[in-house]
Design brief:
about 130 residues, mainly alpha, flat
Length: about 130
């Protein structure tokens, strides 16, 4: 589950453009050419998201996060090499980058072996007990 709903329901709501929108009564439609451009962009993005193969959305989010981190670190490097020499700022560390399908398969194989082969298993297998490291 994600956002309190099943993944398939979430995908269909994203494809319909219903995620993050205000209720119909409170929603104000943009006016003029900018409003038309925004509506067209929204339509193109929802079609793009719906057409992505499984796992691509996660990889896209990881790439965007990596690009954002790199941009922040460039700004920090410029600052640290100028006025920041008196009080430098620490760099933003990268989160671990992994293939979610491969990680999920590995977790299922490990827990399956524990249960069916070893007969001894972790009784608390939630995401907080799984550490992903490079």
């Amino acid at each position: 589950k994600a956002c309190g709903m099943a993944v398939e329901d979430l995908k269909s709501r994203i494809a319909q453009g219903a995620i993050g929108e205000a209720p119909a009564a409170a929603k104000a439609e943009p006016q003029g050419p900018a409003g038309k451009a925004w509506s067209h962009l929204k339509l193109v993005l929802t079609e793009l998201i719906a057409s992505l193969p499984e796992g691509s959305l996660t990889k896209l989010a990881q790439t965007a996060t990596s690009g954002s981190r790199m941009a922040k670190n460039v700004g920090i490097a410029v600052y640290n090499n100028s006025v920041g020499i008196f009080s430098p700022v620490s760099y933003v560390e990268a989160p671990p980058c992994f293939d979610p399908v491969q990680l999920s398969t590995l977790i299922w194989r490990v827990h399956g072996k524990q249960i069916f082969k070893d007969g001894l298993f972790s009784s608390d297998p939630h995401p907080g007990n799984i550490l992903v490291d490079d």
